[in-house]
Design a protein that fits this description.
Elements (H helix, E strand, L loop, with lengths): L6 E7 L2 E6 L3 H14 L11 H15 L4 H10 L13 H15 L6 H37 L6 H28 L2 H6 L2 H26 L7 E4 L2 E4 H8 L3 H15 L5 H17 L4
Antiparallel strand pairs: 1-2, 3-4
Helix pairs in contact: 1-2, 1-6, 2-3, 2-4, 4-5, 4-6, 5-6, 5-8
C-alpha cells in the first residue's frame, strides 16, 4: 500500500505549497468492497459495467480531488466510460486505475489517456482469463458438488454451492483489487503470464473432470429392469452390466449426452426432451 497518511503537505516553492494526497488503506479497502458488491449492480448497453466501475472509485476520487471540482468532474467522466470484463479476476483493473488516478491527482503532467487506455487494453484479456478459469472451470466444479449434495431434493446442495462460490469470489475480488492498486501496471505482467495461466487452467481442468465424472456416476440413476426368464433360469441384464463395469449404463447416457451436445450441436432443451422421451419409452416397455 502506498501510504496510511490521509493527506501529506509538502513545500513546492517559496511562494506557495502543493498539496500531495495519498489514499489510506481504508480508502482502498472501501473502493475494493464497493467493487466486490456492486460490480454488476448497474449495467446498460451504452456503458455495461462503466457505472459500477466509477462508483467503486468515486469515494477515493472525491478525496483525491477535494476542492478541485473540475478535476473531480473529469476523473468521474473518464471512469464512467464503457467497461466490460469478468468481474472476479477483472477486479484488478479498477485497482490499477485507482493507483493511476492517485498519480494523476498528484502530478498534473501525468497523461490521463494512460488511465483510459489501460482500462480498455486490460478488460478483454482479463475477461478471457476469468471466463476460462472461473466461469468455465471452477463454477462447474462447484455446481457438480452442489448437484451431488442435492440428490433426492436435499436443499443443502444449492446452499453449499452458494457458500463455496461466495467464499471464493468475494475474497478474490477484494484481494485482486487491493493487489492491483499496490502493484499498479506491474500487475498486468503477473496475471498475463501465458505459462502460468496454462498451468492453472490445466490443473483446474483435471480436478473438474474428476469431480464431474464422480457426480455423473452417483447422480444418474439408470438401471435395467428387464430380466430374461426361461423356465427356472433367470438372467438379469443389470447384473451382467455391473460385472462388466459398475454404473455402465449411466456412463453410456452421460457420454451420449456429451456427444449430442458437443458434436451434434444439440441444445440443452432438446437434450432434456430427448431424455424424457427415452425414459418414458424404457419405462413403458419395462426395459428400465
Amino acid at each position: 500500500m502506498r501510504s496510511d497518511n490521509m493527506i501529506e503537505n509538502t513545500a513546492a516553492s517559496a511562494t506557495g505549497t502543493t498539496r500531495e494526497v495519498h489514499l489510506s488503506k481504508r480508502d482502498v479497502s472501501v473502493a475494493a468492497w464497493r467493487w466486490s458488491f456492486f460490480c454488476l449492480a448497474s449495467q446498460n448497453y451504452e456503458r455495461m459495467m462503466g457505472t459500477p466501475f466509477c462508483h467503486s472509485l468515486s469515494g477515493s476520487l472525491e478525496k483525491l480531488y477535494e476542492g478541485d471540482k473540475d478535476g473531480l468532474s473529469s476523473a468521474l467522466k473518464r471512469n464512467m466510460t464503457f467497461f466490460n470484463t469478468e468481474p472476479q479476476l477483472g477486479a484488478i483493473i479498477p485497482g490499477i486505475c485507482l493507483a493511476l488516478e492517485e498519480q494523476k491527482a498528484n502530478d498534473p503532467s501525468f497523461d490521463e489517456e494512460v488511465i483510459a487506455s489501460t482500462k480498455n487494453a486490460l478488460m478483454g484479456p482479463f475477461a478471457g482469463i476469468g471466463d476460462s478459469i472461473l466461469v468455465g472451470t471452477i463454477n462447474p466444479i462447484l455446481l457438480s458438488i452442489g448437484i451431488g449434495l442435492a440428490a433426492g431434493g436435499n436443499p443443502i446442495g444449492p446452499l453449499v454451492f452458494l457458500a463455496l462460490w461466495c467464499g471464493i469470489v468475494i475474497p478474490l475480488k477484494y484481494f485482486l483489487f487491493v493487489k492491483g492498486y499496490s502493484l499498479g501496471l506491474d500487475a498486468v505482467k503477473l496475471l498475463s503470464n501465458a505459462e502460468l495461466k496454462d498451468k492453472i487452467t490445466t490443473a483446474l481442468t483435471i480436478v473438474g473432470l474428476i469431480v464431474i465424472g464422480g457426480v455423473a456416476a452417483t447422480t444418474i440413476k439408470a438401471s435395467v429392469a428387464f430380466i430374461y426368464v426361461a423356465g427356472d433360469m433367470t438372467i438379469s441384464l443389470q447384473e451382467i452390466f455391473d460385472k462388466i463395469m459398475p454404473n455402465l449404463v449411466p456412463l453410456v447416457i452421460a457420454l451420449g449426452s456429451y456427444v449430442l451436445v458437443s458434436k451434434k450441436g444439440w441444445s440443452a432443451n432438446k437434450l432434456i426432451v430427448a431424455i424424457l422421451i427415452f425414459a418414458a419409452v424404457m419405462v413403458a416397455t419395462g426395459i428400465m
